[in-house]
Amino acid sequence: MARVDLSPIHDFLPCATPQAWIDAALANQELLLIDHAHCEKKAASTALGLMYRYMEDPDLLHRMSRLAREELRHFEQVLSILQKRGIQYRHLTPARYAQGLHQHARKEEPGRLVDTLIIGGIIEARSCERFAVVAPLLDAELAEFYDSLLKSEARHYQDYLRLAEKAAGDEVKERVETLLAVEAELIQSPDDSFRFHSGVPDWL
Fold first, then answer.
1. For 151-204, how does the pLDDT look when each residue is reduced to its tens digit (9 = 90+)?
2. To the nearest 10°, the Cα dihedral for 170, 175, 178, 179?
3. CA–CA separation, 77 vs 124, rounded Å?
4. Cα separation, 166 vs 34, whole angstroms
5. CATH topology of domain 19-193
6. What InterPro entries does the entry give (predicted)?
7. What is the average pLDDT value for the chain, to the nearest integer?
8. What are the CA-CA distances from residue 53 to residues 5, 61, 169 (Å)?
9. Are β-strands 190-191 and 200-201 bridged in parallel, bridged antiparallel, or unpaired?
10. Dihedral in degrees, nearest 10, Cα atoms 200, 192, 189, 12
11. What is the pLDDT of residues 99-125, one digit of tens each?
12. Alpha helices by DSSP H, the chain
């Protein structure tokens, strides 16, 4: 499978995934898969939530509908891998990552919509970057699966940012920079538990 050009995502994100997280991912592949399933389900839920909240925007409705379907399909694929490997899908406490980003989102419209879309784009970009960085280090089945996700995840990041640009106009660049600075701190600072979007593990 031809690899997706991820240079736009690498240029967009403020930092690369730390090596310590990569090491933790390889040492905790069961947790990686379980939390990945939770991430896909949450991504679909986020897209559906936007569809319910902003019903007057046909472009948003079309893009989020497609995104939700793809994320649920990915969720089903991860569940199948878990079942095949005898891993029980179970509840996990969420990473501080998404909550940490949303704490900096504005509460009033239209800022709420703009920031929610930017955060969605940031999360999709980081997911894509992490799929790409761990895929070559995993077994053949997981490597092929994670490679297969890159194209859609890269498109999801672009969809979110295009919708944010449409909603915010010239303001979007400043908000993107602000929220990317928050993202960099979350990714590079210590975390006490491993998750797909966790920061640097402080137990290693």
1. 888 899 999 999 999 999 878 999 999 999 999 999 999 999 999 999 998 865
2. -140
3. 18
4. 35
5. Ferritin (1.20.1260)
6. Ferritin-like, Ferritin-like_SF, tRNA-Hydrxlase_MiaE
7. 95
8. 33, 10, 20
9. parallel
10. 60
11. 999 999 999 999 999 999 999 999 999
12. 7-12, 19-27, 29-53, 58-84, 96-102, 111-134, 140-168, 172-188
- Asked if residues 67 and 121 have their Cβ atoms less than 8 Å apart, the reply is no
Contact call for residues 118 and 58 (beta carbons, < 8 A): no
Domain boundaries, the chain: 19-193
Amino acid at 33: L
Q: Which two tokens stand for residue 64?
A: 């989020």
What b/e sequence results for 63-96 when a residue is b if at least 16 CB atoms lie within 10 Å of its CB, and e otherwise?
bbeebbebbbebbebbbeebeeeebeeeeeeebb
What amino acid is encoded at 10 in this protein? H
Give the amino acid at 35: D
Cis peptide before 110 (omega within 30 of 0): yes
Taking each helix axis from N to C terminus, what angle separates 172-188 and 111-134, rounded to the nearest 10 degrees? Answer: 40
Site of tokens 């940031």: 122
Backbone angles phi, psi at 193, to 5 degrees: -150, 155
Q: What's the CA gap between 68 and 183, in Å, rounded?
A: 23
